[in-house]
Hints:
Elements: H1 2-101, E1 102-107, E2 110-116, H2 121-145, E3 157-158, E4 162-163, H3 165-173, H4 185-189, E5 195-197, E6 207-210, E7 220-226, E8 229-232, E9 241-244, H5 248-253, E10 254-259
Antiparallel strand pairs: 1-2, 3-4, 5-10, 6-7, 6-10, 7-8, 8-9
Amino acid sequence: MARIKHASITLCALLFTTLSFTPLAGASEQARASAVQKSHLAKNDERKKKATTPKIAKKNSRSTAGTKKTSAKKRATSRSKTTQHATGRTKSSLDLTAARTLECTPRKGKRPHCVRSKSTQPATLADAHKSRIARAQKNAISRLMNQIGKPYRWGGTSPSTGFDCSGLVYYAYKDIVKFRIPRTANEMYHLRDAAPVNVAELESGDLVFFRTRGRGSADHVGVYVGNGKFIQSPRSGQDIQVTSLSEDYWQRHYVGARRVVTPKNIR
């Protein structure tokens, strides 16, 4: 009986122990499970953050790079447009020039055959200058020829009073050229606006100079009218006349010629 009581007491003790500690063990296991779960969740969050951060950074860098590329493209586009605009203007001007200087013949299946034309722009400008010069020379010679037969007068500069040699030249060119015509033959000979001319290249309207009294570089002036002749107001007692440049007297005293009617000098 004593053994049976002892055994029953022992069983009771075991049951009490089992019943009392089983909930605690379950609670501890649940706590562990929740802790493990929390740690896994925390790790997963960290991994997500790490995975997301580079992506965001990459996106930001890509967007920044895209913005830079877009702005660079815009700048490049604007530059190319400007260049094209300028190139277009240059090409158009070149095309205009080419159209004036080249003659092109179209050919089937080949590039057009182009040759330089004879009538170029510089030639056209030269023709315009020649026309202006010819008109100015004609006006000057016409004024001079209308004075033939009028008497020489020292210091004279008008048809009403008569002319000396330099006064006659002054009257012919005072309204034709831009610069002021001097009043003496020596000043005209040294005129900076007048170009020296060889005797073999004389043109109508050129000034011819002589030294008749041996004073200075030149003391007498006339105007070449073509065909080896010049118009002059010789000296006191003589009238305005046309004289041959080939006469011995004028050949001996001839010192040079100057051209006052040039494209830059004409009014």
